[in-house]
Structure formats: structure tokens, C-alpha cells
Design brief:
Blueprint (H helix, E strand, L loop, with lengths): L1 E4 L5 H7 L10 H11 L8 E4 L5 H7 L1 H14 L7 E5 L24 H7 L15 E5 L7 H24 L5 H4 L5 H10 L10 H15 L50 E3 L1
Parallel strand pairs: 1-5, 3-4
Antiparallel strand pairs: 1-2, 3-5
Helix pairs in contact: 2-6, 3-4
Length: about 270
């Protein structure tokens, strides 16, 4: 998600941002309240925000880090204004917002440049078709607790992601997505072992890959694969899931490596301002 303050002297906007903090430190109820306030139509033209996603297919094809960074870029480009300064939560910068000679990650040398990354993974070059680039792109570690606009984007991302997980629970209730929100909890792991992966799981995550391998071994041995229970099958719910494409408006959030979600993950964006 991306959030931008268009007028730094707007006292009402500043007052709202003074109540914003790292989304992890807020209750779910408070995050929902702030989400509604941050996206209120009365702030149109005074703030700008956008949300983008990385699908499970994209994550599997380029890896979770690059998919997250690509989603950050898309959220910036979806803003109704062109951000001159972009502040990103974390320690990496979206390659699609940088010039070829710039470094997208920590470290020095040619291997960290955008040009080297694109040479190694040509499919990433296609993610950025626009030539416009912001003047400044900075990465701020733990930025959601340091910069109010990053904190606002953090809230938009987390609430949107949680709402998606509730919809996903309606589709696949056996996995209890509404409880673990896609993280690799014990309940989630047990459901994965019992029912196998569902279409929303990303195959590049080790437990999901192991579940697919187990099914393949069963098939090779001539055994019946673990049956899919009726409770796992997609329900004809009234509220269908958003389209599973990178352009769908689904919140994305970066998480610590040891707690990466098994399903649609991705990048929390940051602050952008004119």
C-alpha cells in the first residue's frame, strides 16, 4: 500500500496522522477505524493512497522479495499523483522505481545494481513499463514506527490483507484463514497436512511444496491421494475473491522472514509525497 500527504500544512490531515502508529501495535478494531478515516472521501485531493498486490503465481515465479518490491512499485504508480519522494519500509528499494545504475539492496558493487538484477532475471524488467521515476527513493528500517505516512500505509495494508483472508475463509473454510491470516501457525500447518494445499497457497513455500510432493509420491505409489473434503471445496459465496492478478486491489505487507505468510504476501509500501 502507498499513502501520500499532498499538503504538509493541512492541520486536519496532520492531526489524523498523529494518531497513526505501527499497525502491529494497534488492535484490530483500532486499525479498522483508522483505515476508514485514512480512506475517507473528505480527504480526496488532500491525501492520496493506493493498494496493489502480488499474486501467488508471481511470487512463485520471481521469489517473494522481488514480488513484494514489484507490488510496492505498482502501488506508487497507482497513486493519482506522481510522488517525487518515496520512502519505503524496510532495507530494500523497489528496482522498478530506480535507475539502472542504482543499488536496490544493501551492499556495494555491480551485483547490487538494478541493471545486474534485470540481467539475472529478465522477467523483472517487464514489470515496469513506465519511464517516469521519482527523484528520491529511500528505504527506512522499521519505518512504520518512524514515519507517519509509512505507518498509514502499514494500516491500509494490514486491514486490506485481513479482509482478504476473511473472504478466503468463506471460500476455503477448512483452513481457518480468518484465524491465522495466512501465517504458518500450527493450525494452518495441520490443515495443510490434512487437506493439502488450496489454490491460494504459494507453491514456493516449503510446507506447501512438501504437501505437493507428498501427493506426488502417493500418486507414484498408486495410492489414493488425500481426499479433499467438502469443507475445503470452494463455496459459492456471494462475495467472491478479487481477481488473482498483480493489479487487483489487495493489501500487501512485508513480514519478518520467519513469519512469511503461506498465501498472497507482499510488500507494504510506504510514504510518498510531492
Amino acid at each position: 500500500a502507498a499513502f501520500a500527504v499532498l499538503d504538509p500544512s493541512d492541520q486536519e490531515v496532520l492531526k489524523l496522522l498523529s494518531t497513526v502508529n505501527d499497525s502491529k501495535k494497534l488492535s484490530a478494531k483500532r486499525r479498522d477505524e483508522l483505515y476508514e478515516e485514512l480512506t475517507d472521501a473528505k480527504f480526496k485531493g488532500r491525501t492520496a493512497w493506493a493498494i496493489a498486490e502480488a499474486s501467488e503465481e508471481e511470487i512463485d515465479s520471481v521469489n517473494i522479495l522481488q514480488a513484494s518490491l514489484a507490488a510496492m512499485e505498482r502501488s506508487v504508480r497507482k497513486l493519482p499523483v506522481r510522488a517525487d519522494c518515496v520512502l519505503v519500509d524496510g532495507c530494500q528499494r523497489p528496482p522498478g522505481l530506480l535507475r539502472p545504475e542504482e543499488s536496490w539492496t544493501r551492499g556495494e558493487g555491480s551485483n547490487s545494481s538494478v541493471a545486474a538484477l534485470r540481467a539475472k532475471a529478465p522477467m523483472l524488467d517487464a514489470s515496469s513499463k513506465e519511464k517516469w521515476l521519482p527523484s528520491v527513493v529511500d528505504a527506512i528500517i522499521k519505518g512504520d514506527g518512524k514515519v507517519a505516512s509509512i505507518g498509514a500505509a502499514s494500516i491500509l495494508a494490514k486491514v486490506h490483507r485481513d479482509r482478504l483472508m476473511h473472504k478466503l475463509h468463506e471460500e476455503y473454510p477448512a483452513y481457518a484463514f480468518n484465524k491465522h491470516m495466512g501465517y504458518g501457525t500450527k493450525v494452518h500447518m495441520e490443515a495443510l497436512k490434512e487437506h493439502g494445499p488450496c489454490p491460494a497457497h504459494r507453491r514456493s513455500f516449503a510446507p506447501v511444496a512438501a504437501a505437493y510432493d507428498a501427493q506426488a509420491l502417493q500418486a507414484a505409489a498408486g495410492e489414493a491421494a488425500t481426499p479433499v473434503r467438502k469443507s475445503v471445496l470452494k463455496r459459492p459465496a456471494a462475495a467472491a475473491l478479487p481477481a488473482k492478478t498483480p493489479e487487483a486491489k489487495v493489501a500487501l505487507r512485508a513480514v519478518p522472514a520467519e513469519k512469511k505468510p503461506l498465501v498472497k504476501d507482499a510488500g507494504k509500501f510506504s510514504k510518498a509525497r510531492r
